[in-house]
């Protein structure tokens, strides 16, 4: 396994890697009390730290995903491998949210392919899509727990319940 450098993940070089400065500045301001000001140099330093942290996190998760994939004698890292890697690395609290983001991306990708060579012509209603998403959540939970159903956390957003 080759250890990836931040430049392998987010750009040609570390200087090419960046996060949207306006967005990061807004996040920094939202996290602080309204009467606290942050010098521009300090903002730049925080943003640089975020770039490094994101690159390190991606490196960590991708390396563990590769290990999970290898243990299963697979050659391609699948979304399930990433979810298992998050669990192994102690990020279980984020698995459902990450899976939901993946499913949303998948649904949006399917929408963009409608009418193309990948479309089967069938369209889902919003309710059908939500029901299918919940079914896939349950399947993913079962796979993550070796086939055992997992109780849903009680602090889950009620809007996600079906």
Automatic annotation (TrEMBL):
Pfam families: CBFD_NFYB_HMF. GO terms for cellular component: nucleus. GO terms for molecular function: protein heterodimerization activity. Keywords: Nucleus. Its main location: nucleus. Residues 153-162 have a biased composition (Polar residues). The keyword Nucleotidyltransferase does not apply. Residues 17-86 form the Transcription factor CBF/NF-Y/archaeal histone domain. Gene3D superfamilies: Histone, subunit A. InterPro entries: CBFA_NFYB_domain (IPR003958), Dr1-like (IPR044255), Histone-fold (IPR009072). It is found in: Nucleus. The keyword tRNA processing does not apply. Residues 139-162 are annotated as: Disordered. This is Transcription factor CBF/NF-Y/archaeal histone domain. It comes from Dillenia turbinata.
